[in-house]
Design brief:
By secondary structure, this protein is mainly alpha-helical. It is built from 7 helices and 3 strands, in the order αααβααββαα. A 3-stranded antiparallel β-sheet has the order 1-3-2. Strand 2 and strand 3 form a beta hairpin. The longest helix is centred in the C-terminal third of the chain and has 28 residues.
């Protein structure tokens, strides 16, 4: 991270702020319009577990940028709901790893399908030119997502 970015206050206007607000509103609308029965923190951890499974809790905490204790509580709540399961680490039996259960896979699949339907419905209200502009912007948004993910991973506690 650039040292000057830490001390400089973010601008309240401009493309970065507009993008942040738009992404937050889209995310919130998708959550409100779904039957997602878990918290945002649990959802984020679940998506990360799916991406990395099986994964050690310490690694998961690092990737999510939270303390090991916080991640342990998140995983315990997911485990209590039957969404994830712990398995012994084949390299160190004292350590457990986490993976998604069949119920967790079903939950993710249903959430993604509902979110995709909601986005498709919203996209259907856009003009041809708006859809075209959005299609052109998608690779840039994906690149931005990757840059931000690397930044979070490199600067997390």
């Amino acid at each position: 991270m650039n040292p000057s970015t830490k001390t400089r206050a973010p601008r309240e206007s401009g493309p970065a702020n507009s993008l942040r607000v738009s992404v937050a509103r889209i995310y919130r609308a998708l959550r409100v319009n779904s039957d997602w029965s878990i918290t945002p923190s649990q959802g984020s951890a679940l998506a990360r577990i799916e991406q990395c499974e099986p994964v050690r809790l310490g690694v998961l905490a690092h990737l999510e940028g939270v303390s090991a204790a916080s991640m342990s509580r998140i995983v315990e709540s997911l485990e209590a709901q039957g969404i994830v399961v712990r398995i012994p680490d084949p390299l160190d039996g004292r350590v457990s790893m986490v993976k998604i259960s069949a119920a967790g896979k079903k939950l993710i699949s249903e959430y993604r399908a509902a979110s995709t339907r909601a986005i498709e419905s919203a996209l259907s209200t856009l003009s041809h030119d708006e859809k075209s502009s959005l299609r052109e912007a998608l690779p840039i948004l994906e690149k931005l997502s990757q840059i931000l993910q690397v930044g979070v991973t490199n600067h997390s506690p």
